[in-house]
Amino acid sequence: MKNILLPTDFSENSRNAINYAMRFFENELCTFYILNVQKASLYMTDDLMAAPMNTSVHQSVINTSKEKLNELTKYLQKETTNQKYSFKGITDYDVFTDAIKQAVKSKKIDLVIMGSNGATGAREVVFGSNTLNVIRKVDCPVLVIPQGYVFENLKTVLYTIDDNDHFNTEGMDPLVDTVTKYKSSLRILKIKEDDTVTIAEFDDKKQLKDFFKNINHTFHSITNVPSALAIDSFVQIMNIDMNAMFIQKETFIERFFYGSETSKISYRTRVPLLIMKN
């Protein structure tokens, strides 16, 4: 059984991520923990005035959150009666990433699925601060769903490797589970700074071939192109349905999501982005 964490602020963006999760895990035994996080600093004078005299603002906010979660879990249970799903609501009054960390640890979460929660363009999504903080600070795989993205069968999955990455089987389960379940073709893309092939890179490719021997896979590389631009172009040309990667270094996160001083290009995902940890 899988334990999946679904953070929600009851927005259309978070609801869309939940809808994706319902489709993504079809025919699997799953417990979905739906988490709503309330932050004390958000509640000002209006909340104080609106709260009943016999209760605190804190308790009033928590009660409202619990009611909304109860409605949502009942609705999802009703809509997925043909699936082996169970749903549990969690309300927390905390810093967003701290609440996520606590839930991941206490509920033994296998994967966090959340919306991008940032500004959007016609075909692109900018990552919001909550999403980036979870990617940075939470030790759990994260699947980020672009706003408005509707589930499609995962025919082709991209596994992106940074030039400084070295192959390690630890943390690969979410990717392997996905391509195995959907019988996806796997495109392995190496983002390189130059055409030099090192011994370590040669060894990595050999290990990757062996590791994915039972999965239809191909190798690709793009040289001397900013990572964000290289991936975005590849996703469009190769009709990618999901992009998976490890993000291990803070410097790469900054360069990838915000753009370097030289490129000024930040990553804006068109397809679900699976962030793995090892």
Automatic annotation (TrEMBL):
Ranges of residues in domain UspA: 1-146
Record-linked Gene3D superfamilies: 3.40.50.12370
Entry superkingdom: Bacteria
InterPro entries: Universal_stress_UspA, UspA
Protein family: Belongs to the universal stress protein A family.
Protein name according to UniProt: Nucleotide-binding universal stress protein, UspA family
